[in-house]
């Protein structure tokens, strides 16, 4: 009885650990043909409180404003106007896959002139083009800027980026992409992080789910699925069954450090071979104390500046010579360095030296 209980406990522990590490296939791959398309447009934001473009510095703002007014039947030929409540902007958006006419998408509005802020502005109807030059959406609405600015006679303060903002659901789709998803006979799954082991596990999970061979690994980043062999009602039904299957992905051992913030991120598979580490701080101090020598009284001499430099080198006590046994995980080494009071920046230098010595078995990424 005790043996049975122990076996069940071991099974639950292993199964629970595997389930905790498993990820849905939809979070690991991109489906061929299921993708967004970038859109861009050039428009005008009006209604600004004196924070728009200076027409002298941004003549393109005057051109687009003149074109809009002429299309509305307002003749401004030969007129001189210098409004400060308009700004020329670029409007960008992403057309999601299978977007239909009439659906709405979010847009981002960014000033391209010398406007100081887009707060409170309204984007005038702006067509959005794709890479093929066709118009796929039209945007218009009130800009929600992500910052604030204030200015006085002698000082100014800016918080965030007031020259860029968003319009939630600010564009309406006018043209659909010509892509018939129902006619696909096969589809490729592109792994976001190519890995042979992960691709093989995805292949096995898909074949096991359908009870037959319907998928085949092409390389470390691609798994081909035969839609016809799945006997699903449509490609959409087949992908609906596939995307929620769970697999445990494999990851390369990697250490990522950010020198600006002193951040260190590592995976659990990072290992360090047998190595000895000694670390200390060397401080070099140079201080200039020039000495002025005055001429004697009642003479025509001039004061002379004599340079005087004080140079000192101070070496703080190091952490000593620490030996790391082979096969130790990097997390254990980091914990030991933290216990010694080593700063994050010194820790990054230590990791660089360990990598240069060939004892750190992982990709070392420095940003």
TrEMBL record:
Keywords from the named record: Bacterial flagellum, Cell projection, Cilium, Flagellum, Periplasm, Signal
Instruction: Tell me the leader sequence span.
Output: 1-20
Protein name as it appears in the record: Flagellar P-ring protein
Fill in the subunit field for this protein: The basal body constitutes a major portion of the flagellar organelle and consists of four rings (L,P,S, and M) mounted on a central rod.
Q: Which domain of life is it from?
A: Bacteria
- Pfam families listed in its UniProt record: FlgI
Q: What is the native source organism of this protein? A: Aliiroseovarius salicola
Question: What functional role does this protein have?
Answer: Assembles around the rod to form the L-ring and probably protects the motor/basal body from shearing forces during rotation.
């Amino acid at each position: 009885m005790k043996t049975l209980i122990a076996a069940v406990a071991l099974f639950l522990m292993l199964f629970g650990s595997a389930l905790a590490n498993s990820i849905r296939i939809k979070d690991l791959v991109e489906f061929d043909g299921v993708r967004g398309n970038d859109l861009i447009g050039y428009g005008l934001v009006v209604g600004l409180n004196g924070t728009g473009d200076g027409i002298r510095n941004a003549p393109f703002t005057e051109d687009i404003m003149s074109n809009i007014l002429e299309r509305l039947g307002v003749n401004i030929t030969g007129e001189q106007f210098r409004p400060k409540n308009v700004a020329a902007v670029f409007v960008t958006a992403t057309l999601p896959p299978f977007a239909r006419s009439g659906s709405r998408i979010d847009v981002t509005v960014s000033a391209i002139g010398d406007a100081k802020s887009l707060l409170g502005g309204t984007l005038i109807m702006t067509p959005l083009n794709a890479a093929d030059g066709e118009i796929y959406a039209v945007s218009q609405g009130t800009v929600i800027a992500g910052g604030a600015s204030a200015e006085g006679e002698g000082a100014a303060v800016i918080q965030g980026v007031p020259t860029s903002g968003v319009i939630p659901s600010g564009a309406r789709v006018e043209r659909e992409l010509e892509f018939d998803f129902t006619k696909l006979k096969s589809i490729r799954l592109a792994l976001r992080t190519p890995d042979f082991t992960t691709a093989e596990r995805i292949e096995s999970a898909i074949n096991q789910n359908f009870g037959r061979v319907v998928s085949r690994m092409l390389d470390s980043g691609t798994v081909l699925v035969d839609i016809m062999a799945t006997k699903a009602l449509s490609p959409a039904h087949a992908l609906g069954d596939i995307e929620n299957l769970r697999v445990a992905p494999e990851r390369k051992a990697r250490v990522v450090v950010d020198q600006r913030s002193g951040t260190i991120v590592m995976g659990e598979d990072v290992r360090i071979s047998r190595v000895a580490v000694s670390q200390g701080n060397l401080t070099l101090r140079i201080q200039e104390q020039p000495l002025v020598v005055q001429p004697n009284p009642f003479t025509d001499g001039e004061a002379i500046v004599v340079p005087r430099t004080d140079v000192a080198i101070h070496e703080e006590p190091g952490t000593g010579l620490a030996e790391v046994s082979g096969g130790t995980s990097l997390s254990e080494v980091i914990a030991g360095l933290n216990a010694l009071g080593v700063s994050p920046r010194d820790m990054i230098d230590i990791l660089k030296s360990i990598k240069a010595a060939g004892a750190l078995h992982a990709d070392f990424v420095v940003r």
